[in-house]
Amino acid sequence: MADRDTDILLIGGGIASAMAAATLRAEGFEGSILLAGRELDPPYHRPPASKGYLRGHESKDDALVHPSGWWEEQGVELLTRTSVMALDTGARTAKLSTKEEVGYGQALLATGAMVRRLSVDGAQLDGIHYLRALGNADTIRGDVDGAERVVCVGGSYIGSEVAASLTELGKRVTILMQEAHPLERQFGARAAARFRAILEAHGIEIAGDDEVERFEAATPGVCDAGRVARVVTKGGRTFECGAVVCGVGAQPDVMLARRAGLALGDLGGVRCDSRLRTSAEQVFAAGDICEYDSVVHGRVVRIEHEEVAAAQGATAARNMLGADAPHDVVPYFFSDLSDWASLEYVGPAAAWDEEVVRGDVDGGAFAIWYLEGGRVRAMLSVGGAGDVDRASALIASGEPVGATGVPA
Ligand SMILES: Cc1cc2nc3c(=O)[nH]c(=O)nc-3n(C[C@H](O)[C@H](O)[C@H](O)COP(=O)(O)OP(=O)(O)OC[C@H]3O[C@@H](n4cnc5c(N)ncnc54)[C@H](O)[C@@H]3O)c2cc1C
Q: Of ligand 1's atoms, which has the minimum distance to the CA of residue 12?
């Protein structure tokens, strides 16, 4: 017998759960909603953690998904610092870290992702950071204060964004990465060469086609105690530094889902159908853990982006209320390299055989349309040069348009 009951249990305190709560109320749901999240803070937007918040331009309040007071006003019970330890999908009960057992009618699993950690010699030295939460950004900002040089490991969004932000804070930054150019895996070589040029123009050193072999403390060869003083690469290079920030990917946090016996997918997430229903009765999933049958892409996808998590939280909420609608929102993503470049992307393209460029890829604003067999699979817009709505419509339609059908 549970200690108490809730109509809807939202598990995880990120954007997906927060948007599910908002959608339930906006759709007129009057039943009880309980959100349990592990972190100290109410749900907040993570993107500022590598951008404005890291640079000190945005506050924690600015980053909140809902302003303080919203939860009470909306009659949504918010339990921060509370983990769901176990889920019994047969009995429809959840055990909380507070020892309370809660019975639920429907549940949303939105436990997000965890950073991937490097396991190389010296990985435990002081001054090596990972970034997932606002608290990590606080630590990094404090810790790099005394460092003149910082190495950012990883050439994806986090590595590139953090490199830009720390440069704005007066640090000399090196990006060390496996790719030749930053953001190449996401956007291809042409766009990536431009992003590299933007970062280099602001003094960032790019060390591509290489990776970390070990971190060393001040005494050469010492990797097991003290503070990081240099990064030694597999390619034989050495970068002296006072701090390191690693952005080497994330992995979906499916620990609770696995323990609860939910079906997991090949992409590492919780396997869902097109309605975002998991394999358990009345349990939905959304956000970074959600691996779903996408009616837009005609394949299974799992995406780690803020707007996607928000949109999936909304879809799951509507389906809890009986909408029985597939999640058909074309995934949208944004990123900023400080104030130097703002980019938006719709897609994602699993593969493409043609890039159609609009605008000035070597200088000003530009867009790249990614086509496969004449069909638009994705579009990257830098500086607002591309029509995101039009691209989303073309991606969703799946109709062949060819290069001539790409908007000017
Ligand atoms: C530094 C950074 C910058 C980013 N920048 C961008 C960007 O510019 N653009 C973009 O589109 N995306 C960006 N992202 C990605 C985006 O933030 C994520 O896709 C999004 O936060 C996913 O939301 P979510 O609700 O699925 O999970 P999360 O935000 O990870 O939230 C899940 C929460 O659930 C908690 N939790 C886990 N297990 C349990 C449990 N058992 N019980 C209770 N709580 C639990 C976790 O602690 C976490 O607080 C960025 C991410 C990071 C880390």
A: 34
> Which atom of ligand 1 is nearest to 46's Cα?
17
> Beta-strand (E) ranges in 54-204?
76-79, 84-88, 93-96, 101-109, 113-115, 128-130, 149-153, 172-176
- CA 36 to ligand 1: nearest atom: 43
Ligand 1 center from residue 152 Cα (angstroms): 21
Best residue for ligand 1 mutational test, from 38, 46, 346 (most atoms within 8 Å of Cβ): 46
Question: What own/partner pairs with CB < 8 Å and gap ≥ 24 does 31-34 have?
Answer: 31/7, 31/105, 32/5, 32/6, 32/7, 32/8, 32/75, 32/77, 33/6, 33/7, 33/8, 33/75, 33/76, 33/77, 34/6, 34/8, 34/9, 34/10, 34/76, 34/77, 34/79, 34/102, 34/104
Q: Which residue has the tokens 């389906």?
A: 319
CA 26–ligand 1 middle distance (angstroms): 23
Do 228 and 243 form a contact (C-beta atoms < 8 A)?
Answer: yes
The model's pLDDT over 82-132, given as tens digits with 9 standing for 90+, comes to 999 999 999 999 999 999 999 999 999 999 999 999 999 999 999 999 999
pLDDT attached to residue 222:
82
- Please give the structure tokens belonging to residue 101: 């057992």
Closest-CA residue, ligand 1 atom 9, reads 334
**Mean pLDDT score, 25-45:** 98
pLDDT in tens, 236-281: 999 999 999 999 999 999 999 999 999 999 999 999 999 999 999 9
**Ligand 1 — pocket residues by CB below 6 A?**
11-16, 36-39, 46-47, 49-50, 83-84, 110-113, 131-132, 158, 253, 256, 287-288, 304-307, 309, 333-335
Measured distance CA(292)–CA(275) in Å, rounded: 8
In the numeric block, the tokens 């933007």 are attached to: 198
As a whole-number percent, the residues of the chain with pLDDT over 90 amount to 95
- The predicted pLDDT at position 221 comes to 81
> Whole-model pTM?
0.97
User: Cα–Cα distance between 365 and 380 in angstroms, integer?
Assistant: 11
Instruction: With a cut of 90, say whether residue 305 has pLDDT above it.
Output: yes
Conformational region of residue 359, where left means phi above 0, alpha means psi within -120 to 50, and beta covers everything else: left
Tell the residue number behind the tokens 């090596």, with chain if given.
128
Pick the residue whose CA is nearest to atom 31 on ligand 1. 14
